[in-house]
Amino acid sequence: MTTLTRRLRQVERRRSDAAIWCWRLATFAVPYLLIVVLGHRFGVIETISTFWLLALGVAILVASILTGARGLYELWTFGHKGGLKAARGTVLAVILLLPFGYYGAKAFVLPPMNDISTDLEDPPAFESAVEDRVAGMNIIVDPASERSELQLRAYPRVSARRYPLGTGRVFREVVALVSEREWTILTTESEFGEAPIDAEGSGLVAKPVTDEEGLPLRIAPPKYRPQAVVAPETQSAETELVAPVGRSSANEDSDDSADPSEERYVEAVANSFILGFESDVVIRMVEEESGTLVDMRSSSRWGPHDLGSNAERIVQFMTDLDAALQGVSGS
After folding, report:
1. Would you say the C-alpha torsion 109, 111, 115, 121 has a positive or negative sign?
2. pTM (2 decimals)?
């Protein structure tokens, strides 16, 4: 009897350690990535640390896939147990890697840019954002000719708008769209606390650019709100698209001795939807004889590549502005 038991144990199937670790690593990655994402979104984890923690999360998922492949190989070759755990862990790891693969593909296809503007010759200038950025953040610089060519090829839909409306009317609508997105308006007019920066009653309120310790203001992530999309064929014929370069001014034939055109600015901080990465946004409205020229610029605070987020932000904002000003008479 003892000899029979010994022989049965010899032929008993072994359990694959690789399959077990595949499942452990994949299931561990779920709460790990969730903590990293929520930690950065709510200001608990700093941005630079978040990049490293996400890279570690990718390494964990890759290790899960590799150990899963080893477990499946041992199942096929030696008949070891654990094939179901290896399969489940591998599938879970692949699903968690899909977003990283998607953004990795965008980083490969799109040019490495982090500052997009509707005017490449004279982009709207940042003021509060320059004072708000610290060591480690991207430096705000004017676009070079090489970078301008990259933007024109990669993002042909990024363009300014010229509306046959008064600057005050366009300004109020821009304020409404900024408020709807819950972007944080920046200003240096007051050291701390809130201060209104619009005298026309638009309700625009400015936030301080630094906290009590002089550190960059941590912007609260906005709530998700679906934005209206206007199809190109429904766009008003009165709205003129203005190219980022080689544009013509509506005031180029005006008297040089006349008073300079009125300009208004809205400077704010926007957040990405999932991780809450900050980008500085400035919207410039220039009064012209026939209406108002609207330019917009969006610049990421972190990383050499925005993965197309700045261009998407500008295109969506301008599309919503077109929709908001449909059929509105000038003021």
Report:
1. negative
2. 0.77
